[in-house]
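Re: export button greyed out
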Amino acid sequence: MLKELIRIIKNGNIVVLTGAGISTKSGIPDFRSKDGLYQKYGEKIFDLQFFFENPSVFYDFVYKEFPKMYDAKPNFAHIFLAKLEKNGYINGIITQNIDNLHYKAGSKNVLELHGNATRFYCTKCGKQSKNTFDGYICECGGLIRPDIVFFSESVRYLEESYTLIDNSSTLIVVGSSLQVYPAAYLPIYAKKQNKTLAIINKGKTPLDDYADIIIYDDIVETFEKIAKHFEEVVD
Ligand SMILES: [Zn+2]
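Workaround output, generated via the alternate export path:
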């Protein structure tokens, strides 16, 4: 399977969909795992109404958990994907993650379905800010929110994601358990468009039967193995 995946990556024209699994080795907690954030704070923490009604509870969470994201460094998998993009193998990355690690790694074409936790804006005047450690009330009196997608909100860049898949020949899913829609619909869409679908994930996903190539393994270790066949990419 790995051999086949290497062959497919060499062919290029690839779009990658990443989930929490790519960032666990960077120390980002997986929201849906047993020791993840939902276990700790409950799913209501990303409920928009809860946010507006309890901003101080939400920001206790932000001040405690977000710095881990800000301090996190991209791991080998993020960096290798950025290099593959730079060398023309990858057309773009669609990510479910809000941790900014693809940009930190140097990727350019990144579609952040769930937003980005390093950006904030005022819900009243729209003014953007880098962080909220000086307070979460804007000069205008409005409540400042993170630029991330809450549960009741629509994911972003869905049309752009479909277009990216249309314009590529292969979709590689990396570290997503494919349990959250509509992101989990993207691999199904890719198959309907007769694209090659590869999944690299530690555990099984509900869409494994759709995949042409499936690798159940550690993400970073898998990309370290793949990188050995791309000496021109890894300097
Ligand atoms: Zn404002």
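The first helix runs from residue 2 to 11. The button fix ships in the next patch.
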